[in-house]
Amino acid sequence: MKSLRAFSVASFLLSFALFLALAQTIPAADAIGHIGERATVCGQVAGQHVAPQSQGRPTFIDLDRSYPRQSFTVLVWERDKEAIGPLPSNGQLCVTGTITQYRGAAEIVLHNAASWYAPKAQPTPSPQLSNDRHYTNSDGQQVHSPAYSSGGVPAGATAVCRDGTYSFSQHRSGTCSHHGGVAKWL
Asked: What's the predicted TM-score (pTM) here?
């Protein structure tokens, strides 16, 4: 009975380790350190070219070319193109397979549509402002009062005040007057 339980535990641990190995996702720049491993490699599409004179008409898609010493290539043979479907020519691309090395670069050869995906771009949340106060300007329009931003320049901002707040003023006169003056016009 003990040997059956030990076998079950060992089997579970082996299955779990295999699952982790198959589920591993790494950036394209790190793929060279994972030769021989099965993984999902993700990166920015940096270029694509076809070698029409080569036997099998391979298409090469380079990811994250900004790492020339650690380049990563997705290889698609002409015979597999229909099964793979159209690949994106820009944006992010993730490919799954065994990482091999060819001429100093890491690569994965694609064979079907299940071995790649293009992650959906996550929308950048709009910056949150530190207040929701408004004032009426000289034209009688409601304008947001100067406020700090949680990240990035908020929509409609016209200047950055010296205290770090963003101004939404419609006129230069008096802009940031209670905030140390204008540090920068936007």
From this structure: 0.53
| Predicted local distance difference test score (pLDDT) of residue 17 | 43
Collapsed DSSP state (helix, strand, coil) of residue 35: coil
Q: Is 111:74 a contact under the CB 8 Å cutoff?
A: no
Across the range 122-140, mean pLDDT stands at: 86
The CATH number of the domain where 101 resides is what? 2.40.50.140
Residues 6+ apart with CB under 8 A from 39: 21, 24, 25, 26, 31, 96, 99
Judge whether 27 lies within some domain.
yes
Q: What is the pLDDT of residues 50-61, one digit of tens each?
A: 888 888 889 988
Q: Is the pLDDT of residue 79 over 80?
A: yes
Enclosing H/E stretch for 4: helix 2-23
Sequence length of the chain is: 186
Of 83, 98, 117, which closes a domain?
117
CA 42 to chain centre: 8
Q: Report how many domains make up the chain.
A: 2
Domain that holds residue 48: 23-117
